[in-house]
Amino acid sequence: ATLHGADLSSADLSGANLTHAFITDANLTSADLTGADLTRADLSRGADLSGANLARADLTDANLIDAILQGANLTGANLTGANLTGANFVGVRCNAATRWPAGFTPPTCLP
Length: 111
Known about the structure:
With 111 residues, the chain is mostly loops. The chain has no helix or strand.
């Protein structure tokens, strides 16, 4: 799927299969991506996931360069192998089940 620049704010994408999707420069503020498969998705170039619910989402090998994840819910999300260079994690929620890329220092998370 190519969703470059799409306005998906507050969209219900829970459980969606977005494997290999191009979601660059998209507005996903407050979107529900609970349990979504975003394996190898491209969410770079300022994709705005502020306040998005990514609980239990699979972001394995996703490209999140410069993504905005401010206030996002990453509890139980799998970010193994994801490129998080320049991503904004201010106020993000995560827990012990959140999986981060090897060598990445996780942000301070809210419960």
